[in-house]
Amino acid sequence: MLIDRYGRSINGLRISVTENCNFSCFYCHREGCPDSSREMTPDEIGNIIRIVSGFGVEKIKITGGEPLLRDDIVDVVAASVQPGIKEVSMTTNGVFLPDKAQELSEAGLSRVNISLDTLDAEKFSKITGTDSLPRVLEGIEAALEARLVPVKLNMVVLRGINEKEVDRMIDFASERGMILQLIELVDLNGEDFQAHHMALDEIERDLAARAVAVRTRRLMQSRKRYLLPRGEVEVVRPMHNTKFCAHCHRLRLTPDGYLKPCLMRNDNLVDILSHVRAGNLDGARKAFVEAVERREPYFKRAAQERCVHAV
Ligand code: SAM
């Protein structure tokens, strides 16, 4: 397993397989990806995964854009299932799951995260620019039926829009045996961040008071998991969070085949696809090592920063 300059091992690859999306969520960070000029084929994705699994990567997350917009998404999943890969999961808006969940499961997808910020149809339209809430709810049922479990619901908490809906979402998720992920809004596209960002401290205090147990997912950015009398809630707090960065163990891959060391930056990408296309596997391996080498916590501890400035 590769360890970066800050002592963090790399066990996961988050692959954005397309920049296209059928939603236009006003806050979307588009996985921090610049516009793409090329798109990886399933075989190329498979080749890259084979290379990174040789370096100890065990978990693959497929995302987008909307990954289910790709006609060949089942092939992408099948290509991702490789020796050494323990889990292939996907983040989706769920709209196409009613047609695709079973096939994806048969191709080797382990589980899904489904983005759902609200159960209120009007708010849903305001956030996503679509009237697809009923379709997403069908998608959730399809994922459960296809045993893409545990299904996690991704809820970005937005001040002035859905922050009062957290309890309703906990009930909705727990009644169906799902895990609710509360996600702090990340400031990447600048749109409406000030208006809708909220720190999740108060929500976390309330969860802590109600929890029968609280766990920390060390290998997942030190996220807290609150086990409630009914249901489970995970909290993702990336903003100005040194622990989030200190416990980050994954690299990203853009739709056009660049390794991306950090969600928040685009000035340190490493081209791996060109090497794979040229059949230069040694070059592709070097690209992976280079990307790991370029990793750096985005939010650093003050003391650590002082150290860095001193040398
Ligand atoms: N289209 C898919 C979906 O809707 O899940 C996958 C791509 S989407 C960019 C992946 C996840 O990022 C979603 O759960 C979405 O809510 C989250 N996300 C997007 N922009 C965000 C932001 N500015 N802050 C926090 N989370 C964000």
From TrEMBL:
Coiled coil: none annotated. Its cofactor is [4Fe-4S] cluster. InterPro entries: Aldolase_TIM, Elp3/MiaA/NifB-like_rSAM, MoaA, MoaA-like, MoaA_arc, MoaA_NifB_PqqE_Fe-S-bd_CS, MoaA_twitch, MoCo_biosynth_MoaA/MoaC. It catalyses: GTP + AH2 + S-adenosyl-L-methionine = (8S)-3',8-cyclo-7,8-dihydroguanosine 5'-triphosphate + 5'-deoxyadenosine + L-methionine + A + H(+). GO terms for molecular function: 4 iron, 4 sulfur cluster binding; cyclic pyranopterin monophosphate synthase activity; GTP 3',8'-cyclase activity; GTP binding; metal ion binding; S-adenosyl-L-methionine binding. SMART domains: Elp3. This is Probable GTP 3',8-cyclase. The gene is moaA.
